[in-house]
Design brief:
This protein has helices spanning 31-42, 59-66, 82-90, 108-116, 128-139, 147-156, 162-173, 178-188, 193-200, 204-218, 223-232; strands at 22-27, 47-53, 70-74, 97-102, 120-123. The relative contact order is 0.13. It has eleven helices and five strands, in the order E-H-E-H-E-H-E-H-E-H-H-H-H-H-H-H. By secondary structure, the chain is α/β, with parallel strands linked by helices. It has two domains: 22-155, Response regulator (Rossmann fold); 161-232, Arc Repressor Mutant, subunit A. This is DNA-binding response regulator. Residues 23-139 form the Response regulatory domain. One of its GO terms (molecular function) is DNA binding.
Amino acid sequence: MAAVAGVSPPEGEGEGEGEPPVKVLIVDDDALVRAGLAMILGGAPDIAVVGEASDGAEVAAAVRSYRPDVVLMDIRMPRLDGLAATEALRRRPEPPEVIVLTTFHADEYVLRALRAGASGFLLKDTPPAEILRAVRRVALGEPMLSPAVTRRLIDHVSDTGADGRRRHALRLLDRLSEREREVAVAVGRGKSNAEISGELFMSVATVKAHVSRVLTKLELNNRVQVALLAHDAGLTLP
């Protein structure tokens, strides 16, 4: 089962010497899940589990204490769920990246967490090697979700506000120049910077600059949110 769709890290990713380890905070109300994840992650020389929390209500204090690079966030917790905790984290200056944990492919909470700024999601029965690759990739600021997974989530989750979101997405995209809009749509179609460079006849550095301006103008945190916005606007269909 490919629970982390679209993840194909470069050869040797995460294996460099001399780099500080990726610091991870594990948030889950199930002690066995936390222990299992800690065991998987702790076995990697380039990843360090710096702390654990058993509820979303503990996340803010844990992030202040441990300063993680990546938070593995359970969605369903008794006091404060992972969605609310993710929204609060992403409002912080220089927030950690968030990967949400779920037991379902099509979970309304997953989609809402992605809209709130999570970088992707993992199923709780994801193979260990995929978990490690996901943490490494997100720590580099790279998206975890392919457009196909994004579309599948949207299609399978009951979503009654599609028309309103389409109007909202189109209004936001009006903030962009024509070139920035082309880049945003290409991001929504899952194109890498190199692919966008070839498709739109600009340098990779120029693509990166456009992506940065798109994120700033749209007040978004990452490429996953740009992709969701382009999907909402109906601009990513062939």
